[in-house]
Sequence to fold (211 residues):
Amino acid sequence: MVPSPDRRGWGAPGEVGLSIVNRPDGVRFAINAAIADLVATLLDLTELAGYDLIPGQCWGYAKRKIAGTNVWSTHAWGLAVDLNAPSNGRGGQGDIPDHVVDMWENNGFEWGGMWLHTDPMHFEFMGTPADARAITARLRDFLTPAPAQPAPTTEENDMRMIIDTRDQTVWLFGCGNAKSLGGAPEQYRRLLALGIPVTEDDGLLVDFLRH
Fold:
């Protein structure tokens, strides 16, 4: 059993720093500030994955106990979100697609749809504050576009490529020089993206050793 949030470094229920998730589509709720960026990103990815979030039906922080018990809900630490509550009521399986559930679970959350008494609207963060920072950083790094490649020079565009078909080594010819770029296929794609020809004029891959 996972320790309660107060034993994972989250402090006392109801005594947490909060941030407001405020999406352009009108979805708005408070959440623990330490997971606000993570939750906001996962909400964006949920929409991109094809599951529409409905304003007024998604909830976060609430200083309350689990219904019918004297146990604090993870909502009281701002560590849980409920998505489209009316269509994902307790006791059913709801309508959240499996790939969306997997995405949240792969980023530190547990889904209530697998509990004995199902609560499919509910996702709660299971880690520590340090875990939240690490997962947020990992997800941000994954989603950050690679730096733009510099514009090709005239000299690069004038070069021609020949490929050694035995080991797939790439050779560029131009300006009187030959230059090996190694054999990684990614090199072909990058050069193609720069507008540099990737085959000989006849469209065939050529073994330069035959020439």
In short: The chain has a mean pLDDT of 82. The chain has two domains: 5-143, 154-210. Strands lie at 18-22, 28-32, 80-82, 109-111, 122-125, 160-164, 169-174, 177-182. The longest helix spans residues 129-143.
